[in-house]
């Protein structure tokens, strides 16, 4: 409840600022761009002032093997999302793969601390309830930047309710344990993405537009069939990946991979630091995922 009240207050403040924003190149998918840019700026400022310093301290203090185990643990939790949503979409093959990943990594990987499923050839999927709603035919609606949560759409915002129901960590008691897991997940995800956000800031002429277009393209790709693909976290410390990300941010965007047939795997970059890949987070839920400036990593 405290988090909800805080978000409402922040949203009201951002609405006040929205009138100051100007839109020079209107986008049909972003009819409230003035508000969204103001919210993006607010989120990005908060991220740089609070979360980035904490994430850097965490990255400095916690050795790579330990951070890999934390990443693997929450990625294993993310497979619960993948399994549930693949079932809802009647993607039986993908759901069976998710269930096998959960079983192998939970029992043989000590609760998910180690990833044995990926070397065994089981792909990491990328699912959330917003994708499920899209596959059921619900239109995405206008692009929307949420306070703290970052990029979304009206459909993905509605999907948050389903994400929270599916999230197994929300049922952990006592509450302080659930909140502690939320905090660790948030900081660990931000630490994993420090290099990615630095590249975007350095290379993109307009980080807001780049973030919006990349988010919408990614969601369209997932809904049109890409959700069955591998969803590993890129290794931004690798020279090749860094060059590719910088090139895309500089305006030479790479084309989205061709949509695979149902159940087929899409190519993806190698996972960072040996940790199993993080799939894109369900919007509005405290799970690890892609973070871009303008939104804190409350998503997979």
UniProtKB/TrEMBL annotation:
Tell me, which GO biological process terms does this entry list? intermembrane phospholipid transfer
The residues the entry assigns to the signal sequence are: 1-21
Q: Keyword annotations for this protein?
A: Lipoprotein, Signal
Q: What's the domain of life for this entry?
A: Bacteria
Residues passing through the membrane, by range = none
Q: Does the keyword Signal apply?
A: yes
Q: Name one GO cellular component term.
A: membrane
- Compositional bias, Low complexity, is annotated for 259-275, 284-300
Q: Where is this region: Disordered?
A: 234-300
PANTHER family the UniProt entry points to: INTERMEMBRANE PHOSPHOLIPID TRANSPORT SYSTEM LIPOPROTEIN MLAA (PTHR30035:SF3), LIPOPROTEIN VACJ-RELATED (PTHR30035)
Family, as annotated: Belongs to the MlaA family.
User: Under which name does UniProt file this protein?
Assistant: VacJ family lipoprotein
Q: Which organism is it from?
A: Pandoraea horticolens
